[in-house]
Amino acid sequence: MVLAAASVALAAGCTAQAAGSGGGSGSPTNAPATSAPAPTDAPTQDGKAPSPSDTAATPTETPSGTPSGTAQPKALMDDGDENEQVRELQARLRQLKYFDRAPTGFYGTMTAGSVKAFQKKQDLPRTGSVDEETWQRLLGASRKPTADELKPSTTNELDTPDARCMTGRVLCISKESRTLAWMIDGKVVSSMDVRFGSENTPTREGIFTVERKVRQDWSRLYHTPMPLSMYFSRGQAVHYSADFAARGYNGASHGCVNVRDRVKLTALFDQVKVGDKVVVHW
Predict the structure, then answer these.
(1) Of the candidates 192, 183, 193, which has an alpha carbon nearest to the alpha carbon of residue 277?
(2) 94, pLDDT greater than 80
(3) Global pTM value
(4) Mean pLDDT of 90-105
(5) What is the rounded (10 degree) CA torsion for 185, 191, 193, 196?
(6) Which one is predicted more confidently, 70 or 36?
(7) Closest to 190 in 3D by CA, of 172, 202, 213, 174
(8) Which end of the chain is more exposed for a tag (fewer CB within 10 A), N or C?
């Protein structure tokens, strides 16, 4: 019975599973009339009329410690902006390890936090927005981003390829960076984000080969589609996952290597041949 159950599981493939305020400060309106002296035009002791400047208020300070009359530097980029300059900002911050994901071109809270960290390092006011001084400091500390840095092929950054991936045609799959790199003779041709099986149904590690390809497959064990399947270790395959595309890393597979970019995987499926090497590693 055990052998029979195992054979069914291997043939069925795998699919996704769940992963584990301040108040006002005005004076009271009913204050006694004797609380302050009445205005007078009487001359002072030196015989001159009082000057309005004698009672003029001195500049106050804002809560931030900046005089209220001081103009703030104009922001070149700020929360809510979305353009190519923001994309370059994120790419440059990523070079310096202040921004840990692919540039999006949208200036949100994560970008503001990265800018604050850079400003702190540069001894600049930590505003979270980019003024001319912050931008010039960043330009001086980083280099012009490449096309791949501005629009990376993966959300996750590729790590150094495993040595076993450096020869031949290889699907080089890293559990550490959660990426798949399609490599030919040591060069990365394309890459994509992937996710793996859970602790109870882990994705196997080691050196394998593509055993078979099925463009439109179906998991008989979990009753879900497995399009663009490239099987490499019995029932485990690289395949597209609609669940991964929708939920990201909030889920996991039952052992397969899930891909969320269907367009990229379709192009890869057409290039990979049965017999090509597969390396799954940390």
Answers:
(1) 183
(2) yes
(3) 0.58
(4) 91
(5) -20
(6) 70
(7) 172
(8) N
Taking only the tens place, the pLDDT of each residue in 112-144 is 999 999 999 999 999 999 999 999 999 999 999
How large is the average pLDDT for residues 162-182? Answer: 97
Cα–Cα distance measured from residue 210 to residue 213, given in angstroms and rounded to the nearest whole number: 8
The tokens for 36 are 């302050």
- What is the per-residue pLDDT across 211-238, written as a single tens digit (0 to 9) for each? 999 999 988 887 889 999 999 998 999 9
What secondary structure, in 3-state letters, does the chain show? CHHHHHHHHHHHCCCEEECCCCCCCCCCCCCCHHHCCCCCCCCCCCCCCCCHHHHCCCCCECCCCCECCCCCCCEEECCCCECHHHHHHHHHHHHCCCCCCCCCCECCHHHHHHHHHHHHHCCCCCCCCEEHHHHHHHHHHCCCCCHHHHCCCCCCCCCCCCHHHCCCEEEEEECCCCEEEEEECCEEEEEEEEECECCCCCCCCEEEECCEEEEEEEECCCCEEEEEEEEEECCEEEEECHHHHHHHHHEEECCCEEECCHHHHHHHHHHCCCCCEEEEEC
Q: Dihedral sign, CA of 223, 227, 231, 236?
A: negative
Q: Decide: residue 238, CB within 10 A, 0-12 exposed, 13-18 middle, 19+ buried.
A: buried
pLDDT over 80 at 146, yes or no: yes
Q: Which residues is 49 bridged to in the sheet?
A: none
CB neighbours of 263 closer than 8 A, spacing ≥ 6?
Answer: none
Query: Given a cut of 90, is residue 90 above it in pLDDT?
Result: yes
* Cα–Cα distance for residue pair 46/42, rounded to 1 Å: 11
